[in-house]
Write a structure and sequence with these properties.
Layout: H1 4-19, H2 22-28, H3 35-42, H4 56-65, H5 80-89, H6 93-96, E1 98-103, H7 108-121, E2 125-130, H8 132-140, H9 148-154, E3 162-164, E4 176-182, H10 184-191, H11 198-208, E5 213-217, H12 224-235, E6 239-240, H13 249-262
Parallel strand pairs: 1-2, 1-4, 2-3, 4-5, 5-6
Protein backbone atom coordinates (compact mmCIF):
# COMPACT_ATOMS: atom_id res chain seq x y z
CA UNK A 1 0.00 0.00 0.00
CA UNK A 2 1.35 3.40 -0.98
CA UNK A 3 2.04 6.03 1.66
CA UNK A 4 0.36 9.43 1.53
CA UNK A 5 3.70 10.98 0.57
CA UNK A 6 4.16 8.58 -2.33
CA UNK A 7 0.65 9.37 -3.58
CA UNK A 8 1.18 13.12 -3.25
CA UNK A 9 4.46 13.05 -5.15
CA UNK A 10 2.86 10.98 -7.93
CA UNK A 11 0.04 13.52 -8.15
CA UNK A 12 2.61 16.32 -8.07
CA UNK A 13 4.05 14.83 -11.27
CA UNK A 14 0.55 14.72 -12.78
CA UNK A 15 0.13 18.42 -12.06
CA UNK A 16 3.50 19.25 -13.60
CA UNK A 17 2.44 17.38 -16.73
CA UNK A 18 -0.93 19.16 -16.75
CA UNK A 19 0.67 22.58 -16.32
CA UNK A 20 3.34 21.85 -18.91
CA UNK A 21 6.38 22.88 -16.85
CA UNK A 22 7.33 23.34 -13.20
CA UNK A 23 7.64 27.07 -13.86
CA UNK A 24 4.07 27.24 -15.14
CA UNK A 25 2.83 25.17 -12.19
CA UNK A 26 4.57 27.60 -9.85
CA UNK A 27 2.88 30.54 -11.58
CA UNK A 28 -0.57 28.93 -11.40
CA UNK A 29 -0.18 28.06 -7.73
CA UNK A 30 1.11 31.43 -6.57
CA UNK A 31 4.84 30.78 -6.14
CA UNK A 32 6.91 33.81 -7.19
CA UNK A 33 9.78 31.57 -8.21
CA UNK A 34 9.75 27.86 -9.17
CA UNK A 35 12.89 27.08 -7.14
CA UNK A 36 10.94 25.57 -4.21
CA UNK A 37 8.96 23.26 -6.48
CA UNK A 38 12.17 22.12 -8.18
CA UNK A 39 13.62 21.33 -4.74
CA UNK A 40 10.42 19.57 -3.74
CA UNK A 41 10.46 17.43 -6.86
CA UNK A 42 14.07 16.46 -6.20
CA UNK A 43 13.22 15.83 -2.52
CA UNK A 44 16.25 17.83 -1.48
CA UNK A 45 17.70 16.78 1.86
CA UNK A 46 17.42 19.50 4.53
CA UNK A 47 20.16 20.33 7.09
CA UNK A 48 18.47 18.05 9.60
CA UNK A 49 19.08 15.10 7.27
CA UNK A 50 15.45 14.68 6.22
CA UNK A 51 14.19 15.00 2.66
CA UNK A 52 11.60 17.62 1.79
CA UNK A 53 8.07 16.34 2.25
CA UNK A 54 4.94 17.39 0.41
CA UNK A 55 2.85 18.57 3.37
CA UNK A 56 -0.86 19.23 3.52
CA UNK A 57 -0.46 23.00 3.28
CA UNK A 58 1.49 22.75 0.02
CA UNK A 59 -0.88 20.05 -1.27
CA UNK A 60 -3.84 22.35 -0.64
CA UNK A 61 -2.11 25.22 -2.45
CA UNK A 62 -1.45 22.98 -5.45
CA UNK A 63 -5.06 21.76 -5.45
CA UNK A 64 -6.47 25.27 -5.32
CA UNK A 65 -4.09 26.65 -7.95
CA UNK A 66 -4.90 23.83 -10.38
CA UNK A 67 -8.65 23.87 -9.63
CA UNK A 68 -8.72 20.45 -8.03
CA UNK A 69 -11.19 19.38 -5.30
CA UNK A 70 -9.99 19.36 -1.69
CA UNK A 71 -8.18 16.10 -1.01
CA UNK A 72 -7.28 15.46 -4.68
CA UNK A 73 -3.58 15.25 -3.85
CA UNK A 74 -4.21 12.42 -1.37
CA UNK A 75 -6.05 10.10 -3.78
CA UNK A 76 -4.24 7.49 -5.88
CA UNK A 77 -5.55 8.35 -9.35
CA UNK A 78 -3.51 5.59 -10.95
CA UNK A 79 -6.10 3.09 -9.66
CA UNK A 80 -9.12 4.76 -11.26
CA UNK A 81 -9.07 2.97 -14.64
CA UNK A 82 -8.70 -0.42 -12.94
CA UNK A 83 -11.63 0.25 -10.66
CA UNK A 84 -13.81 1.32 -13.54
CA UNK A 85 -12.91 -1.81 -15.48
CA UNK A 86 -13.89 -4.04 -12.59
CA UNK A 87 -17.26 -2.34 -12.27
CA UNK A 88 -18.03 -2.75 -15.96
CA UNK A 89 -17.05 -6.40 -16.01
CA UNK A 90 -19.72 -7.27 -13.45
CA UNK A 91 -17.28 -9.44 -11.55
CA UNK A 92 -18.24 -10.50 -8.03
CA UNK A 93 -14.90 -9.05 -7.01
CA UNK A 94 -16.34 -5.56 -7.52
CA UNK A 95 -18.81 -6.02 -4.64
CA UNK A 96 -16.23 -7.61 -2.36
CA UNK A 97 -14.28 -4.39 -2.45
CA UNK A 98 -17.20 -2.13 -1.41
CA UNK A 99 -17.38 -0.41 1.96
CA UNK A 100 -20.55 1.33 3.07
CA UNK A 101 -20.33 4.64 4.91
CA UNK A 102 -23.47 5.56 6.83
CA UNK A 103 -23.71 9.29 7.55
CA UNK A 104 -26.15 9.78 10.42
CA UNK A 105 -25.27 12.96 12.32
CA UNK A 106 -24.11 16.58 11.94
CA UNK A 107 -20.60 15.50 12.98
CA UNK A 108 -20.51 13.27 9.89
CA UNK A 109 -19.54 16.33 7.87
CA UNK A 110 -16.11 16.15 9.53
CA UNK A 111 -15.67 12.51 10.49
CA UNK A 112 -17.56 11.06 7.54
CA UNK A 113 -15.75 13.13 4.94
CA UNK A 114 -12.39 12.04 6.38
CA UNK A 115 -13.38 8.36 6.35
CA UNK A 116 -14.67 8.56 2.78
CA UNK A 117 -11.43 10.16 1.60
CA UNK A 118 -9.29 7.60 3.46
CA UNK A 119 -11.21 4.66 1.99
CA UNK A 120 -10.88 6.05 -1.52
CA UNK A 121 -7.15 6.54 -1.00
CA UNK A 122 -6.97 2.90 0.17
CA UNK A 123 -8.49 1.85 -3.16
CA UNK A 124 -11.91 0.89 -1.82
CA UNK A 125 -15.22 1.46 -3.56
CA UNK A 126 -17.43 3.51 -1.25
CA UNK A 127 -21.21 3.25 -1.02
CA UNK A 128 -22.81 6.23 0.76
CA UNK A 129 -26.07 6.49 2.67
CA UNK A 130 -27.20 9.49 4.69
CA UNK A 131 -30.06 10.89 6.74
CA UNK A 132 -31.47 14.42 6.93
CA UNK A 133 -29.13 15.53 9.75
CA UNK A 134 -26.03 14.55 7.77
CA UNK A 135 -27.41 16.12 4.60
CA UNK A 136 -27.92 19.47 6.34
CA UNK A 137 -24.46 19.37 7.91
CA UNK A 138 -22.74 18.61 4.60
CA UNK A 139 -24.75 21.37 2.92
CA UNK A 140 -23.20 23.87 5.34
CA UNK A 141 -19.75 22.84 4.04
CA UNK A 142 -20.88 23.34 0.44
CA UNK A 143 -21.51 19.66 -0.37
CA UNK A 144 -25.00 18.65 -1.52
CA UNK A 145 -25.29 14.96 -0.71
CA UNK A 146 -28.36 14.61 -2.93
CA UNK A 147 -26.25 15.62 -5.95
CA UNK A 148 -24.26 12.49 -6.79
CA UNK A 149 -22.18 14.17 -9.48
CA UNK A 150 -21.19 17.02 -7.17
CA UNK A 151 -20.20 14.62 -4.39
CA UNK A 152 -18.06 12.58 -6.76
CA UNK A 153 -16.44 15.75 -8.04
CA UNK A 154 -15.68 16.89 -4.48
CA UNK A 155 -13.97 13.60 -3.62
CA UNK A 156 -12.53 13.27 -7.12
CA UNK A 157 -14.14 9.85 -7.53
CA UNK A 158 -15.65 7.99 -10.46
CA UNK A 159 -19.05 6.29 -10.44
CA UNK A 160 -17.24 2.99 -9.91
CA UNK A 161 -15.50 4.38 -6.84
CA UNK A 162 -18.39 6.21 -5.19
CA UNK A 163 -22.02 5.09 -5.26
CA UNK A 164 -25.16 5.75 -3.22
CA UNK A 165 -27.43 3.35 -1.36
CA UNK A 166 -31.20 3.48 -1.05
CA UNK A 167 -33.92 1.53 0.77
CA UNK A 168 -33.53 -1.33 -1.73
CA UNK A 169 -29.90 -2.02 -0.81
CA UNK A 170 -29.10 -5.73 -0.98
CA UNK A 171 -28.12 -7.30 2.36
CA UNK A 172 -25.04 -8.79 0.67
CA UNK A 173 -23.99 -5.76 -1.41
CA UNK A 174 -21.26 -4.52 0.94
CA UNK A 175 -18.09 -6.00 2.35
CA UNK A 176 -18.10 -3.79 5.47
CA UNK A 177 -19.87 -0.74 6.90
CA UNK A 178 -18.56 2.28 8.82
CA UNK A 179 -20.83 4.59 10.83
CA UNK A 180 -18.67 7.63 11.64
CA UNK A 181 -20.00 9.92 14.37
CA UNK A 182 -23.27 8.26 15.40
CA UNK A 183 -25.52 9.93 17.94
CA UNK A 184 -27.71 8.16 20.48
CA UNK A 185 -30.83 8.12 18.33
CA UNK A 186 -29.12 6.36 15.45
CA UNK A 187 -27.41 3.92 17.81
CA UNK A 188 -30.81 2.97 19.23
CA UNK A 189 -32.33 2.45 15.79
CA UNK A 190 -29.48 0.25 14.58
CA UNK A 191 -29.23 -1.75 17.80
CA UNK A 192 -32.96 -2.49 17.94
CA UNK A 193 -33.61 -3.04 14.24
CA UNK A 194 -35.94 -0.05 13.97
CA UNK A 195 -34.09 1.72 11.17
CA UNK A 196 -35.90 4.51 9.35
CA UNK A 197 -33.27 5.72 6.86
CA UNK A 198 -30.98 4.07 4.28
CA UNK A 199 -27.98 5.04 6.45
CA UNK A 200 -29.13 3.19 9.56
CA UNK A 201 -30.54 0.37 7.43
CA UNK A 202 -27.12 -0.12 5.85
CA UNK A 203 -25.54 -0.79 9.26
CA UNK A 204 -28.43 -2.99 10.40
CA UNK A 205 -28.14 -5.21 7.30
CA UNK A 206 -24.37 -5.53 7.70
CA UNK A 207 -24.77 -6.69 11.29
CA UNK A 208 -27.49 -9.15 10.30
CA UNK A 209 -25.27 -10.68 7.61
CA UNK A 210 -22.19 -10.75 9.86
CA UNK A 211 -20.25 -8.17 7.86
CA UNK A 212 -17.60 -6.09 9.67
CA UNK A 213 -19.22 -2.98 11.15
CA UNK A 214 -17.34 -0.09 12.77
CA UNK A 215 -19.46 2.40 14.72
CA UNK A 216 -18.07 5.63 16.20
CA UNK A 217 -20.48 7.07 18.80
CA UNK A 218 -19.96 10.79 19.39
CA UNK A 219 -22.11 11.65 22.40
CA UNK A 220 -20.44 13.83 25.05
CA UNK A 221 -22.40 12.02 27.76
CA UNK A 222 -23.82 8.50 27.49
CA UNK A 223 -27.02 7.57 29.28
CA UNK A 224 -27.73 4.11 30.67
CA UNK A 225 -29.94 3.40 27.63
CA UNK A 226 -27.19 4.47 25.22
CA UNK A 227 -24.63 2.31 27.01
CA UNK A 228 -27.06 -0.59 26.73
CA UNK A 229 -27.41 0.01 22.99
CA UNK A 230 -23.65 0.08 22.57
CA UNK A 231 -23.41 -3.19 24.47
CA UNK A 232 -26.09 -4.66 22.19
CA UNK A 233 -24.24 -3.50 19.08
CA UNK A 234 -20.99 -4.95 20.39
CA UNK A 235 -22.70 -8.26 21.07
CA UNK A 236 -23.98 -8.26 17.49
CA UNK A 237 -20.40 -7.96 16.26
CA UNK A 238 -19.87 -4.22 15.81
CA UNK A 239 -16.54 -2.64 16.71
CA UNK A 240 -17.12 0.48 18.83
CA UNK A 241 -14.69 3.39 18.39
CA UNK A 242 -15.89 6.42 20.41
CA UNK A 243 -14.98 9.87 19.09
CA UNK A 244 -15.27 13.36 20.52
CA UNK A 245 -18.55 15.23 20.01
CA UNK A 246 -16.33 18.28 19.36
CA UNK A 247 -15.28 17.25 15.86
CA UNK A 248 -11.86 18.37 14.66
CA UNK A 249 -9.35 17.51 11.95
CA UNK A 250 -7.12 15.79 14.51
CA UNK A 251 -9.99 13.67 15.83
CA UNK A 252 -11.00 12.79 12.28
CA UNK A 253 -7.47 11.70 11.42
CA UNK A 254 -7.37 9.50 14.53
CA UNK A 255 -10.71 7.91 13.59
CA UNK A 256 -9.63 7.17 10.02
CA UNK A 257 -6.46 5.51 11.29
CA UNK A 258 -8.50 3.28 13.59
CA UNK A 259 -11.08 2.48 10.89
CA UNK A 260 -8.40 1.50 8.36
CA UNK A 261 -6.74 -0.70 10.97
CA UNK A 262 -10.02 -2.43 11.81
CA UNK A 263 -10.67 -3.11 8.13
CA UNK A 264 -7.16 -4.48 7.63
CA UNK A 265 -6.11 -1.60 5.39
CA UNK A 266 -3.18 -0.42 7.50
Amino acid sequence: MKTVQEIRFENFELLIKEAGTIAELARKTGYDKPAYLYQLRAQVVKPNGKALQLGRRVALRLEQGMNKPAGWMDIDHASEPALAAVAVSGSLKSTGNRVGVALTSPESAVYGAAVIRALLIAGKQVCLAFNDAAERAFAQTGIALDDAAAVRKHFYATEAQLSFADEHLSPFALNAVVVPAARGGSLALIANGATQSPAARMAELALATKRPVVIAPCEAVLSAAQLHNLQTLSAQGAVILPVSAAASAEQAEFLTTCVLAQLGLQ
